[in-house]
Amino acid sequence: MSTSPLSWSDEGYARVFERVQERAGLLPPSCVPAAEEGIARAMARAHASNFTAYLERLTLDAAALDDLITELTIGETYFFRTHEHFDFLSQRVLPELRQFRPPDRILRVWSAGCASGEEPYSLAVLLMEEGFGDRMEVLATDISRTALARAQQAQYGLWSFRGLRAERMRPFLRQEGSRYVLTPEVRQHVHFDYLNLALDTWPSPGSGIHGLDIIFCRNVLIYFTRPTIEAVARRLHASLAEHGFLITGPSDPSLIGLAPLEPVLTEWGVAYRRLPDPPPRALPPPRPRSYSTLPVAPALPLAALPVPPPSPAIPALPPPRPAPPAPALPIRPAPAAASASTLSAGLEPARQALVRGDWREAAQLAGAQQDSPESSVMAIRALANVDVEAAVKACAEAASRHPMTVELRYLEALLLLGLGRLGEAERAARQALYLEPSLAVAHLTLGHVLRRLGDISGAVRSFRTAEALCATLPPETPVPLAEGERAGRLAELARSEQRRLESTETREEN
Ligand SMILES: C[S@@+](CC[C@H](N)C(=O)[O-])C[C@H]1O[C@@H](n2cnc3c(N)ncnc32)[C@H](O)[C@@H]1O
């Protein structure tokens, strides 16, 4: 198998990558220098002094091969990532499964490619909220043993809580210094295991991968070659129980036509459902065509479907709830600040890498472009996912080169807030507001900073201003710099934050 026409700086890298491709079905890297760096790091950890020795080691030592695969894939994830998928479970999948399953049946869920565990733990919390606490099991697998070890530790930094709905984890977190530890109540439901999706070792009753009700296989298929995608699609279908649902990631390839799965059209894209097997010798029953169900065979005009923004905007803050010993959950430097149409053509590859979650590559590609506010913003957003401190530094440098770019100040405030550098975060948020006094998201961020600094009345004022600014827009209008988040939803968040603070003040006064 050849990985060319890539231009590797040494044929040895190409040979190593071919080995990975055979084992894990990975696509050739879109950024060869980044892949070479990854291979070099893994070689150094394996103490291999040349490519021949390293290839030999990869043949004999499965752990060394896993370590290399971990370098060449990206473990990016966070709690309740792409929250539309979780809403879909509550609104469509669980009601349907309740209808088709006996009430005492254990609900079986699989997070395939679970990275450091945020996805399966989010699934466990959702199912607990939905009343399945005593009849559910969540299986979570990945090829990266490093990621699996982190998942089992169940300790997370604030960065894992940057999604809009991460607030739902709050009741199940215990703070230990700057880390947040998941309570056993959630952990007990999730079982982690090693699995290479590219190999034909599943489904199998022994591993628990069979007869599943829900599969999340999100942001993994993007790494695979076409033959691997086709084989994985067939195995995912075979792993589902009748009426079971499969959810893939927003940038994953379509599985339509690759397995007898029924595509289910939703407002955020396509989910898949395993149809009941037809009764023997009977004609196939007419397929339900009601709500958003599409025929299997003809290809969908997928390009016309809305692709949801990769992640939300603003600190997801809560339905009023007592006791907030939890994180501020505040950051959201997610990709795609600018739409493709507003970006200069040179930045398009970086934008695509950002949307895929290929942070290192996006940072490199954007950084290699001519210096401009938009290339700086993109590089910083990407960097924020791999090295927050470096992103803060880059942000400050870019802001001094582009002092009138409000987004740079705003990003700096968000990143500093995530690092708990509250004084500096306040300064950056105020600078953003000096440049753009009507920037609602900066008022929200300032509100969070002031709340954590203990300036409750200042925080309430900021949330009130954010709410008032959002209220001037029609509820469905996207708010500037809010990652596609709508004015109505942000106004609601700002309002609930005010209420929470006001009730805290009242409790303290009493
Ligand atoms: C971007 S993360 C996705 C995490 C999570 N599903 C989400 O969407 O938030 C991709 C994960 O896929 C895993 N992966 C890549 N190739 C794999 C393979 N052949 N088998 C199993 N997991 C794989 C990587 O180790 C990484 O943890």
Can you describe this structure?
The chain is of the alpha/beta class. The chain folds into 3 domains: 62 residues, no CATH class; 195 residues, Rossmann fold (3-Layer(aba) Sandwich); 170 residues, Tetratricopeptide repeat domain (Serine Threonine Protein Phosphatase 5, Tetratricopeptide repeat, Alpha Horseshoe), CATH 1.25.40. The chain contains 18 helices and 10 strands. It has a 7-stranded mixed β-sheet. It has a 3-stranded antiparallel β-sheet with strand order 3-5-4. Strand 7, helix 9 and strand 8 form a beta-alpha-beta unit. The longest helix is centred in the C-terminal third of the chain and has 23 residues. It is globular and about 65 Å long. 47% of the residues are buried.
**Straight-line distance between termini:** 73 Å
Number of strands: 10
Radius of gyration: 24 Å
Helicity level: 40-55%
Count of helix runs = 18
Total domain count: 3
Secondary structure class reads: alpha/beta
Write the layout of secondary structure elements.
Blueprint: H1 11-24, H2 32-45, H3 51-60, H4 62-72, H5 83-100, E1 107-112, H6 118-129, E2 136-142, H7 145-153, E3 155-156, E4 173-176, E5 179-182, H8 184-187, E6 190-194, E7 212-217, H9 226-239, E8 240-248, E9 261-266, E10 269-274, H10 348-356, H11 359-368, H12 373-383, H13 388-401, H14 406-418, H15 422-435, H16 440-453, H17 456-471, H18 487-509
Parallel strand pairs: 1-2, 1-7, 2-6, 7-8
Antiparallel strand pairs: 3-5, 4-5, 8-10, 9-10
Residues 24, 70, 73-77, 81, 113-115, 119, 142-144, 147, 195-198, 218-220, 223, 249, 357 line the site of S-adenosylmethionine.
